[in-house]
Design brief:
single chain, five-stranded antiparallel beta sheet, about 375 residues, 3 domains, mainly beta, globular
Length: about 375
Amino acid sequence: MQSPLVVIGKMASLTLASTLVWSAIAGFSDAKAATNRPEPAIAETTVERGQPVEVAQAINTILLYNTGEFTVRVFRRGGGSPLMNVFDNTRQILRLDAQPATLRTVQGQDAYVSFGVFDGRQVEYASQVFDKPGDPAGGFARLLILQGQAGGDISVIRVEDAELVEIFNVPSGVGQGQAQQDNLLVFETPTYSVRVFNRGGQRLMNVFNRVTNVQEVNGKLATVANPIEPYDDAVSYFSSGSQNNQSVQYYARYDLCTRETFLEIYNSNNTRILREGSVGVPVNNIPTTDFPPGQNCQDEGERPSINDAYVAAVFGGEDTLRRLKALGYEDAFLDSSSRQGNFINAGTFSSEEEAMILVLRLRRDGFDSRLVFRDVRFR
């Protein structure tokens, strides 16, 4: 991206349009600048007669991505500290305008954090970064909007996953720090984001409801459950929480035999009220000390190779399937063969990257699409 020194002189009280500032400083593509033009959001700049103005200087973009609702950019001017822009694509306003961004750990992951306002509330905008060597985009990003509560608790107002990462130039080591190494089990279900991690020698759990934007479990102690049928060969971490003012227990389980990862929630009567399998590829760093005693799944014979384990899944029924086929996704079909539940299979791949390309294309076409990982042994 070119960042020219724009000198405007010998003019009386010239006002620079905010669109020029956005296209020059924010560094978006021409197409994005046209659609995301924050004309009401950036204060106009007045230039006095004969006074040169440096509109863009040595801009170095660290991170640029779009979640659909927000466009996020972390950058430096010259050799300065990181700054952050957050543009609300829905309301066409600039939520953050070149605010200082501090790199720190947020919910166990490296993140660039800036202070700002969201719907009249003082909040933190945290852009988590996940370095993924070999990923064509260079890595993954996620935007969290957080608000502090009494007693030091943090309320999660919004969580927005990147749909498209345009620039990923984070410094080496960011996104793969100690916080990442401390993750024991991290996965997502259609409703929840679940994380079990180690901090100071203790196992802790986070459970975030991505539908209601409520953090149902926030850094609470997680205990390794005793193996009982039918989970004899599963590592099960459980923690306590509440739903609708009722006490509940959350179980994050990983079955060593089936390689299945899922979340279960039980009420105070020990009745299961939810069971959801993971979507996407879980992060699994479970130590062998947490394995149930006597399990021997690791001693089984050689497993069949996985040749089409990555699925571009679309959530919907017959009407959605008809829309898909009308738009040219002729091979899509209703798939009920996966342990993750029923969905529309828009394509299967041996490569995660190829599957994710189709997922992003489906999202751009307006479908609720996600990457599903499944083992061909279970079909």
